[in-house]
Design a protein that fits this description.
single chain; mainly alpha; about 80% helix
């Protein structure tokens, strides 16, 4: 057989030196945060509601300080497990989300109940905190996309931002339902309408995908919490009176079932 031509040899060398691009699915697996699918949003809203009622239930049974200490301990354990994973794994990730939801609610409630700070003021403070985190994250990493959460610094920014969104959402939900006297059910429908805005803006007005994601993500907290509160609070407060404990369990069951489905899908995708 003849020797390869000089042009073919040069082409082979260039091809060898050319940086190989990692396929999109492989890049996605590097992130420790799941893709924002419809199931992702359903589980997210359920966890926000469960975190609200679980926090209220523990605060009533144990007292605000012991409940807060328990919530903080659970959050630390969940985040340690999550940070030690090498990639996205459904059970550690969603366990951390649940504990962030519980403790984020406790943090907002402690600021109001114990410190006596009005929800309007705490909502403003949490808004500034969230804005500072987003600005710092973007300046540090050049992006706020969840598709590239694969370094310790990015993951730290991500979870700090998530915690701030839960605290902010709790304060805003209580502000509309209580301070502004809109009520829990009406507040739930209000946030249900508002959460449609980023989707519509993304589709028809060209809103940036990352901006639309975080806009919707922030609103999931008061959305889920408002409906959960409506189901749990007494009828004297315009609720259904089911109790925070039963509502917590009722929300926990579908969360566990859906995360199990996510875990099965994730396992099949890796095979």
């Amino acid at each position: 057989m003849g020797q390869p031509s000089s042009e073919a040899a040069v082409g082979a060398v260039r091809e060898e030196r050319r940086p190989r691009r990692i396929p999109a699915p492989a890049v996605a697996t590097l992130s420790k945060v799941p893709e924002a699918t419809a199931l992702f949003w359903i589980v997210k809203v359920l966890t926000t509601g469960m975190g609200e009622t679980a926090s209220d239930y523990l605060g009533r049974v144990l007292g605000p300080v012991p409940a807060g200490a328990l919530g903080l301990a659970g959050l630390v354990v969940a985040l340690v497990v999550q940070f030690r994973t090498d990639r996205y794994r459904p059970w550690p990730y969603w366990s951390a989300i649940v504990m962030v939801s519980v403790f984020g609610t406790m943090a907002a409630d402690v600021v109001h109940v114990i410190a006596g700070i009005p929800y309007a003021l705490s909502a403003a403070a949490f808004t500034l905190t969230l804005a500072a985190l987003l600005v710092g994250w973007h300046r540090s990493e050049g992006t706020l996309s969840i598709a590239g959460i694969h370094t310790r610094r990015r993951e730290t920014f991500y979870w700090a931002t998530v915690l701030a969104t839960f605290a902010l959402g709790t304060a805003v939900g209580d502000l509309t339902a209580g301070t502004l006297r809109i009520g829990y059910l009406a507040s739930g429908f209000l946030f249900l309408a508002l959460i449609a805005v980023p989707a519509v803006s993304r589709r028809f007005l060209g809103l940036n995908t990352v901006a639309a994601f975080w806009w919707a993500y922030i609103l999931t907290r008061p959305l889920g919490a408002s409906f959960a509160d409506w189901m749990g609070v007494p009828t004297t407060r315009a609720g259904l009176g089911w109790g925070t404990g039963p509502v917590t369990l009722a929300l926990l069951v579908p969360i566990v079932a859906l995360v199990a489905c996510l875990a099965i899908r994730h396992g099949r995708a890796r095979d």
